[in-house]
Amino acid sequence: MKKLLVPSVSSIWKRVQNGNRDSRVLFFSTEAKSLVSLFPSPSQIGDNLYHRIMGEEKHKHSIAPIIDEWVKEGRPVELQILRHIIKRLRKHRFPKYALQIFEWIDESKSLQLSPGDIAIRLDLIGKTYGLDVAEKYFHNIPMNLRTDKVYGALLNCYVHFKKVDKAEDTLQKMRDEFGYDQCVSFTLLMNLYSKLGKFDKLHLLAQQVEEMGVIVDKYFQYTRLNAYATARDVTGMEGLVKKMEVDRWIVIDSCYYTILANGYIRAGDFKKALEAVKNFEGATARRRDEIDYNFLLSLYASLGRRADVYRIWEEYKGVGKLQTSSGYLAMISALEKLGEHDAMEKIAEEWESHNSMTFDIRIPNFLINSHCRRGSLGKAEAVVEKVVERMGAKVGGGTWGRMGRGYAENKEMDKAVEALWKSVLATRPGGKLNMRLLATCVKYLESKGKFERADDIVKSIKRQGLARERFDEILEEYIRKL
Fold this sequence. Notes:
There is one protein chain. The protein is mainly α. It has helices at 9-19, 30-38, 42-55, 64-72, 79-91, 95-108, 115-129, 131-139, 148-160, 164-178, 183-195, 199-211, 218-230, 234-245, 254-267, 270-283, 290-302, 306-318, 325-338, 341-353, 362-373, 377-391, 397-409, 413-426, 435-447, 451-463, 471-481.
């Protein structure tokens, strides 16, 4: 059975942003330009401080001295500037640095965080230090600052850690205390139900939301549609489709067709799946963007439609839409689904030859996984060598972790341990480790009497801030299941 392709939230959001950009005021006069240069915006100032923070290797353990030095130089540090930096740090996945800025604000005593700032901080704490620390922070927030935004961040933490009862209680509190009726938090809880396979609860909540008269958006309906698709409930899926097609608030896009087609694929109705893909292709014929092409490649590959995959690929290249590595990744993935591994490698080489494209680690990582799954460790190692040549010491922990998993699955455990060690050293504080690989390596080392080596790896993980909530307990659980 083909695997359901869950649409990327980031790609959906990008589509909305691109389709609803606010108009911008353009300054054409030289006078206006000179005024802008004389009075830089908070974002411009924030960018300068951000680059200084990221460039100071000696202060990587603490960025407070960098901000202090900035202040001593007489430079402005307003809350709006720091918010801009926090936003960039979150975007580039430096949560601990963002939290250090919040700590600096606390120490300054001169800046007051808004409920929105507190909500962001709570979300960062949960994802970086775990749920217990996030709850402790929440309980220390003054009651007058516990707004719906803050409760929304707490709800997001509970959803992230799959705490159903606490998530339900938090959403109910938001409804009782604030009369909360925005569909975004209901969608969050529905996503949690979907992940846990609690489809009855999901559909009951969706029905309650509709009865409350809440205006729902496409993300809400996509979550419902995806739940029907995952459960192979074609009747429910088609019933919701009829509602969506007449809802003036819902703009049908590529994600809708993707969920629908994959639902039919999971249910084994390949005729209706193909019909959905053809409808998708027809609906986007006049205006098809990169995401549309990527979804079409994936869907046709899932249906085994080799000729259609190559047809879409040639069109993709011919119309000038293939401008980023995402398209190459989509084609490489499609070819792997079709079992055309030689062709997959040729497309990867074609991508490498495009020097104008930004290096995208997702493609080498995908190739490593693909080669390892087929037992082609030599080819996977060759990909890693190319990454090392390109990135040097900046090779991420995810790349080494994938190689380590490949070694472990192919019973080359000494190499797996070495790759795991490199993964630990290369992973940023707050980053994720492959717990199954870690458990496999620890169990192997202990079976060989190498307890000190196993202990060194675990201690290093803790020193580098990679041990998340209940780390020891979770590791032991993984080891027991091996």
